[in-house]
Amino acid sequence: MKKFISTIQNIFSIEELRTRILNTLGLLIIFRLGSFVVLPGVDPAQLTSHEGGIFGLLNTFLGGAFSNASIFGLGIMPYISASIVLQLLTVAVPYFQKMQKEGESGRNKINQITRVLTIIITLAQGIGYVTATIPENAILIDPWFFKASALLILVAGTMFCMWLGEKITDKGIGNGISMLIMIGIISRLPGALVAEFMTRGGAQLLFFVAELVALFFIIMAVVMLTQATRKIPIQYAKQVVGGRTYGGQRQYLPLKVNAAGVMPIIFAQSLMFLPSLGASAFADKYDWAASIATTFADITSWQYNALFAVLIILFTFFYTAITINPNQISDDLKRNGGFIPGVKPGPQTAEYIDSVLTKITLPGSIFLGLVAIMPAFARIAGVDGNFSQFFGGTSLLIMVGVVLDTLQQVESYLLMRHYEGLMKSGKIKGRSNKVAVA
Fold first, then answer.
1. Are 263 and 354 part of one and the same domain?
2. Residues 241 and 139 grouped into a single domain
3. Burial classification of residue 89, based on how many CB atoms lie within 10 Å of its CB (0-12 exposed, 13-18 middle, 19 or more buried)
4. Which domain holds residue 74?
5. Which chain positions lie within coiled-coil regions (predicted)?
6. For labelling alongside 85, which of 63, 195, 202, 248 has CA 20 to 30 A away?
7. How crowded is residue 79: how many other Cβ atoms within 10 Å of its Cβ?
């Protein structure tokens, strides 16, 4: 405890770090306050909650703003969708590939395109949000005027959330966009924890303690999955320039076991409503269609979870393949005079990196699939639906990833000022590792 208090004192003794932390907290408070501001012309008492399916997932990411019909009802999600589209385009379309290689000017162009696409996606999603999730009896003004004004406010709210995320990144600590998602998720944790405790009561208090212990070990497992890397040794050739010798040192190319992050779960989750939706169209005519619709509407069924896990494994390989290019890594190493000991530069190096990447992605994808279906197992074991979301899935992965990234940034500030860091060793794993040019 004494060491922890000393670390906190060191953090707030650095003026720049203290300012960034306060800026982050202030901007996050503004974001949370906005999630409770209801769209003009809506009666909050007539709104329905969204706990299951894709709507429930969005409501979790947005900290309840989705169900509240808030001015931040769509939050930062349209911007994330636009970013994913642009990321895929930079892999598949040569025009965007060329733009990405133009340096700072190319990134600025991509950012501008992302913002425009965000507005378009927000308008499209806003129409569906206003018409499908807000009941007619909750609208207190003229419906057409409400829809037009609500669309404008939702677009403004999303752009404001995007601005908040960028300000957190520039003036605060951590990745601002990820921080907004994390604060939305974690804001629901206290309520879910209290509700679970009240449900268990005195007779089942031991079961509640067992839930907390299980949650702790699951979090530790997710931390291991997030931090796990396979380091490939890279040797650089010695060069003599002006009588001085450069290079010759050994560095490492770290390949993450879970290089895809939470994206495979998000992709798979977006497709999991299709079997139930498609089968429900024929449920009145065929018994087998009704059975499929019922089965895949239940997130605790083994069929649902088996398909969910398989999709996550497939999407993990797909997303890893489009984000990590072994040929480009090989070319960059060759250009900078680096090589893998025992492997010839060029195509052989690319094949070696691809082979290693495939070997570590398989267990990583399987473990990611297990983490994704853990909430279903928790619900089967009797855990409340809201609290079970924190036993795995996208919510837990995002929280762990953002917290680790934030801790690493705080750690870097402490180490630069020669203060002992947050960990006993004074450094978080991966912070001091030398990374090869890739």
1. yes
2. no
3. middle
4. 1-187
5. none
6. 63
7. 25
HSE, side-chain direction, 13 A CA sphere, residue 397: 23
- Written as one letter, the residue type at 434 is K
Distance of alpha carbon 100 from alpha carbon 328, whole angstroms: 14
In tens, the pLDDT along 387-420 reads: 888 888 777 888 888 888 888 888 887 777 665 5
Domain count within the chain: 2
pLDDT of residue 436: 39
Mean pLDDT of the residues in the chain: 80
281 backbone dihedrals φ, ψ, rounded to 5°: -70, -25
| DSSP secondary structure, 308-327, as one string | HHHHHHHHHHHHHHHH--HH
Domain boundary among 152, 187, 222: 187
Residues β-bridged to residue 435: 252
- Of 405, 421, 415, 414, residue with least CA distance to 176: 405
| Residues 159 and 119 sit within 8 Å (Cβ to Cβ) | yes
Total-model pTM: 0.74
H helix or E strand, kind and range, residue 395: helix 393-416
CA 253 vs. chain centroid, Å, equals 24
Amino acid making up residue 92: A
In 3D, which of 29, 31, 10, 22 has the Cα closest to residue 172? 22
Q: Which of 187, 317, 342, 181 is nearest to 257 (CA)?
A: 317
| Domain end residue (candidates: 149, 172, 187) | 187
Cβ-contact 165, 359 below 8 angstroms? no
> Tokens 């696409």, residue?
117
Task: Tell me 375's DSSP state.
Answer: H
CATH of the domain at 204: 1.10.3370.10
- Looking at the structure, do residues 203 and 172 belong to the same domain, yes or no? no
Q: Which residue's structure tokens are 């402490």?
A: 414
Q: In terms of C-beta distances under 8 Å and separation of at least 24 residues, what long-range contacts does 212-220 make, across chains too?
A: 214/378, 214/391, 215/390, 215/391, 218/371, 218/374, 218/391, 218/392, 218/396, 219/396, 219/400
How confident is the model over 82-108, as a mean pLDDT?
Answer: 81
Q: What six digits make up the tokens of 308?
A: 């969910």
